[in-house]
Write a structure and sequence with these properties.
Low-confidence stretches: 206-211
Strand order of the largest sheet: 1-2
Distance between the termini: 112 Å
Structural class: mainly alpha
Helix content: 55-70%
Length: 317
C-alpha cells in the first residue's frame, strides 16, 4: 500500500518538486524527520513527509521563518494564529513600502534636492499623533484666538484637518507630504491668518441685522452667473453683479460703498484667491478621499478685475 511505502530523499524530492539539497536541509533541521533507514544507512521517509514538505514550502513562500514553521508542523503553534500574526506584520511592511514608493515618486516627479527629499521622507514617516500635532499647530497659528469672534471657525478647522488612512494609496501619501510642507510654510500660514482675521473682523463689525454670510461665498454665488454667461468684467452688463456683492460687503463692515471699501474688497478677494489655499484644499481632498473641490479662482479673478476697472487708482500723497 502507498501509505506503507518508504521514499529516499531523491524520490521524495521528485514527488514534492523540491531539490534533493532542500529536502536534506529540512531533514537536517528536524522539520521532516526520516521514518527509517535503508540497510546502507540512507534516510527513508513515509508518505506523510510529502504533505509535510508541501506545507513547509507553502509557508516558506508566504515568508514564515523556519523556527515558526517547525512549530506549526509539529502542532506546537496554531496555523490560524501564526497566519494572523504574520499577516499583521506584512501589513506594516506593505505600509512602509507604500510610503517609500510615494516619496521616491515625488522626488522623481518634482526633481527634489537632497534636503527636500530628507524632509519628504521625514514627513511621510510621521505617526498619526505627530501628524495631528503638525496640522494642529498650523491651524492654531491660523485660527487661534479668533474662535470667540467666529464660533464657526471650530468647524472650519475640523474641515481642514487631513486624515491619512491606515493603508493609504501612494497618491494619498504624496498629497499628505505636500500638504504638510505647505502647512509649514510661514508665508502660507501668514496668508491664512490674514484671511481668518479679515473674516473675524467682518463678523464683529457688520450690521447685526444682516446675516453674517462670508464675503467669499457671497461673491461666488453672485459673480458665478456672470462668469458662466460670459459677461466681460469691464462691461456695463457686469455692473449689477458688482453692485450686489459690494453691497453685501458694505453691510458686513457696516460702512458705505465707496472707493476705499472697493479697494479693500478687491484686496480681500485677492487674499482668498491665494493659489496655495486652493492647493491645500485639493490635497486635503486627496488625503481624505473626498471629491475634488471646484476651483473658485476664475470667479475671484473675474470679481477682482470687475472691481479694479470700476475703482480709480489711489494716488500717493
Amino acid at each position: 500500500m502507498d501509505g506503507d511505502t518508504l521514499y529516499s530523499i531523491g524520490e521524495l524530492a521528485r514527488r514534492t518538486g523540491l531539490t534533493v539539497k532542500t529536502v536534506r536541509f529540512y531533514s537536517d533541521r528536524g522539520i521532516v524527520a526520516p521514518t527509517d533507514r535503508s540497510p546502507a544507512g540512507y534516510r527513508l521517509y513515509g508518505i506523510d513527509a510529502v504533505a509535510r514538505l508541501d506545507l513547509v514550502r507553502t509557508l516558506r513562500e508566504l515568508g514564515l521563518d523556519l523556527s515558526t514553521i517547525r512549530q506549526v508542523v509539529d502542532r506546537e503553534l496554531s496555523l490560524p494564529e501564526v497566519a494572523a500574526s504574520h499577516a499583521e506584520a506584512l501589513a506594516v511592511q506593505i505600509r512602509v513600502l507604500r510610503l517609500r514608493h510615494a516619496v521616491l515618486r515625488a522626488v522623481a516627479e518634482r526633481g527634489s534636492t537632497p534636503e527636500e527629499t530628507e524632509l519628504m521622507h521625514r514627513l511621510a514617516q510621521l505617526s498619526e499623533d505627530e501628524r495631528r500635532r503638525l496640522i494642529g499647530d498650523f491651524l492654531d497659528a491660523a485660527f487661534g484666538g479668533l474662535d470667540d469672534a467666529v464660533p464657526a471657525f471650530a468647524g472650519v478647522m475640523r474641515s481642514m484637518t487631513p486624515e491619512l488612512p491606515d493603508n493609504p494609496e501612494a497618491e494619498q501619501v504624496q498629497a499628505w507630504v505636500e500638504l504638510a510642507e505647505l502647512s509649514l510654510d510661514p508665508g502660507f500660514r501668514a496668508s491664512v491668518r490674514r484671511m481668518a482675521e479679515d473674516q473675524a473682523a467682518e463678523q464683529v463689525r457688520g450690521d447685526t441685522t444682516v446675516p453674517r454670510r462670508d464675503i467669499a461665498a457671497a461673491v461666488r454665488d453672485q459673480a458665478e452667473p456672470a462668469l458662466t454667461a460670459g459677461i466681460d468684467p469691464a462691461s456695463p452688463q457686469a455692473d449689477p453683479f458688482v453692485a450686489a456683492f459690494t453691497a453685501h460687503y458694505a453691510h458686513l463692515l457696516g460702512r458705505p460703498d465707496g472707493i476705499e471699501l472697493r479697494h479693500r474688497l478687491a484686496t480681500r478677494l485677492e487674499s482668498v484667491n491665494d493659489p496655495r489655499r486652493e492647493r491645500y484644499l485639493q490635497l486635503l481632498a486627496v488625503v481624505n478621499g473626498w471629491a475634488a473641490p471646484e476651483s473658485l479662482a476664475p470667479v475671484f479673478d473675474w470679481s477682482v478685475q470687475a472691481l479694479r476697472v470700476r475703482t480709480p487708482r489711489r494716488t500717493s500723497p
